[in-house]
Design brief:
Elements: H1 2-32, H2 37-49, H3 51-62, H4 66-91, E1 94-95, H5 99-102, H6 104-119, E2 123-124, H7 126-146, H8 168-199, H9 204-215, H10 218-229, H11 233-251, H12 253-258, E3 261-262, H13 265-289, E4 294-295, H14 297-320
Helix pairs in contact: 1-2, 1-8, 1-10, 2-11, 3-4, 4-9, 4-10, 4-11, 4-13, 4-14, 6-7, 6-11, 6-13, 7-11, 8-9, 9-14, 10-11
């Protein structure tokens, strides 16, 4: 138990440190190439912080647990909206780029509907996976080129002290190193927490639906909170929306590329429904917030309470099973 507790403490410490370095190097790359932090958050940061989900889905698909991989992708997206965005807003209200309501959020909503259509028959086939990969390519094109006119002047919130003026190879090196530490520290933290839960007699199902799902969202949580605290609001919200898009279009297809994957009806009825509702709520919140320019702590509290209710639902369902 002492070793597991130490792993949790060390994991949290490394997570905080690496998130700080990761955000600074990301902001520096955005500054160096005159790219908006929103675009960096929607693409590079979100892809990097989605690495845990990619690993989980690949391993699950190769071991014949494709349903677990699909559940992990959906569960991580729910955690990103309810937990990551909610806690980030509680820590520091997030300024909202109004273009999100016109471009990125509609894209996320459409992709979520496509996922529901493809999973309606309770299976994910090779064709389904190729369809999702096509949408991935289209989404990346729209994210890069439709936002190509965004400059740093739109987001003057990048403080000079948060910019690394070292040579580009050093900045890139810090980016890669910080990302590796970020992902590794999240794994250490999940390992320690999982073993503590097992020692206390918590079932594997509850551990998988809570600690593992939350654990794979820890990089997004750390990066988003650090970005918001440092004032990189575009990167904070962009990381969450981009990560959700990437989870659905790059992580979810993995088991279908390996073999036709059958899923449990519970995943569609419960988890997908909650994901769709969460996405709609996010759309409504941001659409309302655009008049007030920031995501308030009240909205953050609402999201966290909603996600907590989802976890309670999972726990009660497991108790009755």
């Amino acid at each position: 138990m002492i070793l597991y507790s130490l792993a949790v403490i060390v994991g949290i410490g490394l997570l905080v440190w690496s998130a700080d370095r990761f955000v600074i190097s990301s902001a520096s790359i955005a500054h160096r190439f005159n790219v908006s932090p929103l675009v960096i958050g929607l693409t590079i940061v979100s892809i990097g912080t989605s690495a845990p989900e990619i690993v989980v889905s690949a391993v699950a698909g190769l071991t014949g647990s494709g349903s677990l991989a699909i559940g992990n992708a959906l569960g991580s997206n729910i955690a990103n909206i309810g937990l990551v965005l909610g806690i980030t807003a509680l820590v520091a209200p997030i300024a909202i780029d109004r273009s999100l309501v016109k471009r990125e959020l509609p894209m996320l909503f459409i992709v979520t509907l496509v996922i529901g259509y493809l999973l309606y028959d309770l299976k994910l086939t090779l064709i389904d996976s190729f369809i999702l990969l096509f949408f991935l390519i289209l989404t990346l094109y729209l994210l890069f080129y439709k936002n190509s006119d965004s400059s740093l002047s739109e987001e003057s919130d990048i403080a000079s002290e948060d910019i690394n003026h070292s040579p580009m190879w050093k900045i890139t090196g810090w980016f890669v190193f910080a990302l590796i530490v970020l992902l590794s520290s999240a794994k250490i933290l999940v390992w320690g927490a999982t073993n503590i839960a097992s020692s206390l007699g918590v079932s594997e199902l509850v551990i998988g639906l809570t600690i593992v799902a939350i654990g794979t969202s820890l990089p997004e949580l750390a990066a988003s909170i650090t970005s918001a605290v440092k004032g990189h609001h575009g990167m904070a919200i962009g990381n969450i929306i981009g990560s959700n898009l990437f989870n659905l279009l790059a992580v979810l297809p993995i088991p279908g590329l390996i073999a036709t994957t059958w899923i449990e009806s519970t995943v569609l009825v419960r988890d997908y429904s909650i994901l769709l509702i969460s996405t709609i709520i996010l759309f409504l919140i941001v659409g309302f917030v655009k008049r007030q320019t920031s995501l308030s702590r009240f909205a953050g509290c609402f999201l966290v309470i909603g996600y907590s209710s989802y976890l309670i639902w999972i726990y009660q369902a497991n108790q009755l099973a």
